[in-house]
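Anyone? Bumping this.
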Amino acid sequence: METKIDFTLNGQQVSVTTDPLRRLLDVIREDFGLTGTKEGCGEGECGACSVLKDGKIITTCMVPIGAVGGSDIVTIDGLKETEQGKTIIEAFADGGAVQCGFCIPGMVMAAEDLLRSNPHPSEDEIRKGISGNICRCTGYDLIVESIALASERGDGLW
Amino acid sequence: MAKMPIETAVRRSDAIAKASGTQKYLSDMTFEGMLYSRMVRSSIPRGIIKNIEVPSLPEGYYFISHKDIPPEGKNELWMIAKDWKCFAENEVRYVGETIGLLVGPDRNVLANLLDDLIITYEEHEPAISIEEGLACKGGAFVNDTNIFCELEIKTGDEMDEVFNRADRVFEETYRTGFQEHVHLETNSVACVQEDDAFVIYASAQCPFYIRKSIAGLLNIPYDKIIVRQTTTGGAFGGKEHFPDVLAGPLLVAVNTIGKPIQMVFDRSEDMEFSVKRHPSRTIIKTALDDKGAILGMDIDVVYNVGGYLSCSFVVLQRGVFHATGCYGIPSTRIHGRGVATNTFPSDAFRGFGAPQTLFAIERHMDHLANFLGRDPLELRNEYLLKKGSLTNTNGHVYEEVKLPEMIKQITDASDYWRKAKEYGRGTGKGIGIALYNHGGAFTGNGEQMIIKGHARLHKHSDGTVDILVGSTEMGQGFQTALRKIAAQVLDLDLHMINYDNPDTSKVPDSGPTAASRSTMIVGKLVERAALLMKERYDSEEDFHVEVEYEHPEGFPWDQNTFQGDAYLGYGWGAAVVEVEVDALTSEVETKGIWVSHDVGHPIDELLIRGQVNGGVIQSLGYASMEKMENKKGYFKQNSMSDYIIPTSMDFPKMESFLVDNPYEFGPFGAKGMGELVFNGADAAFCEAVSRAIDRRICEIPIPPETIVELEIHGN
């Protein structure tokens, strides 16, 4: 049965009328055309579809849209417009964190989530912070270094 | 621009779009009137299809099978061999073999239809393991022997004579398992009609391979199929031939239905029903004289090919040619066989057959050293290949081999010698070393005889230059490397050089993106084309130059006898891994990773580091945690929660060195490296664990449960 669901998406009040059991991932990608959020595994293991829900990181393949009513959702398409998002993205580009790129929007979300709670993380804290995000290309070292670079460059942003 | 050395890192041209999510991958694209499709697959490993009961299809839904291939077409995919069918007609050889497609506008409806489609079979007894394949369990289904492909190479004295002379013989058997690519973007292809051509959009490594493979289905000329590579979210060999298996049925379906159709695998499909790395069994028998010197090695290599040959003979050849690793052995005999089994066909995966035999020879050197009461590195050092050494195909090593310098780098950085002495066997702490190499580009004279790669550069009147090649970016950084090469030669800013994902109607065929050949071979073509362009750049406005591959003189090769120079040059590697094994849980904590590589001269230090890090971690995953089992024809692991690949927490930051060793025939001295970096950390890890628990390790992967078994039951 279709239900009307209101929520905030990248700072805008939005509303969808849809099956409440549909995955938030599909609604973001299909109904709003925000394809920066990727599907990697469909079971909450890889983190490619990560977004912030009320400031906390979630995997959108595991969340039904019915659970999103009244929430504040920020996707990569919203984050990339912010100073924080730009700082992380630029650091990823300079630090060599990006290879095939498919996991990277989710990694950027994880980095934002980490830096919000810990603006100056150690290497171990960064590794822990992105441990819910799988990358097959990089072996993680350059992602870890790039997040440290973002933290340094964006001192005071978070 | 102020010229910087080529190796100075630049920002990748694709980084910002990818990191900000604006880069479109195939699943982000839609086409007007696009339909979705689901594969209908064999649910048994071996048998005969007796009946297909298609449920009643709502309007706008279709079932496509071999019956939709027009009479003038042939139901075959032309990979290297032509044996793999587009749709099974009668016989099925493995679980997941394509039988048909369900096509329609709503994915939920398609999923329900798939559940309701019933196929009945006459089931036959399958052969799953290498041993079952060799024993022709259930009867041979390929030739009379199940042997798909076979080769033997020899050097030095006759093996019987060598073993007659031997004072002692040391023999062991080594095994490696399946490995799944787990590119984060799953296999994805779409097909649309455009004017009188079919356009294939594909997440793929080799656009020209797809065109060749599927044109025969409709018996149409190559130029009626246009393949446009879409930004590819990782490949590792998994998108070398396998996209043909999606593109073929889609082509037939679009030809029948006349609407655009997309196919994007979900993760479980991508894991359960896609190609894997070949499982292997390698037996190495070494003849020793009374002083412990190696007289010869007799090596038997078997790879599990699965149900169809595809490119497996080439994979096997590479395995055989790498079976003596970095060592010059006085007499050798290496016999390789690819065996048919009823598992999903094995195919390309970073390393392409080399990792399996390199694992075997590296474990053999460790255990042989132990058998002789010698240090494993000292034993290796005695047999290292050097410039001028004979290879196991009676060819030569042409380049200076810098392994001694590389070994020193990583043994110093890791404090190897102290730790090797201090960590007694069975103390829970261990350190291991492995050496490895990788022959660059296609085997022998394949670049000349089979590929004949072309590259074109086009200068526009605004001064910008397009690089037109069929080679693809799949994450490895190739487009940035190519642009740097062209910019450096033409003395232009990087932003003046364009490279787009290839479209087969617009670019020349520069060969597949495989075999670590792209920078080494295609990069060289671009360098040569840029040199030609430079002469005319200032005087002409709008023109292009095109070059064809030229084989260097003096590398004889006979592809019938497999004699001569199997490769034009090798990348070299050395890895040290240090571990601690938990006494209670047998979990392994990796304490340090030190690697050194000879990649010729680096085109970009940051790109190289990314490749090294990624390849080494993939290799450590292969050794430690990536367990893919096949029981009775079915993969037991089909998700990222049961097939575990490394996370950021599993391995520590590595220390990585390069040695500079410019390669004469590569652009700016570069040679192949994308696969090299996968080829040895696995063996170093196993040696470290082996010393920590004082047990021999001859098989990977070794998850903690295997280590517990070894500790309790011994070898």
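Late reply, but here is one note on the structure posted above: Chain B has 18 helices and 28 strands.
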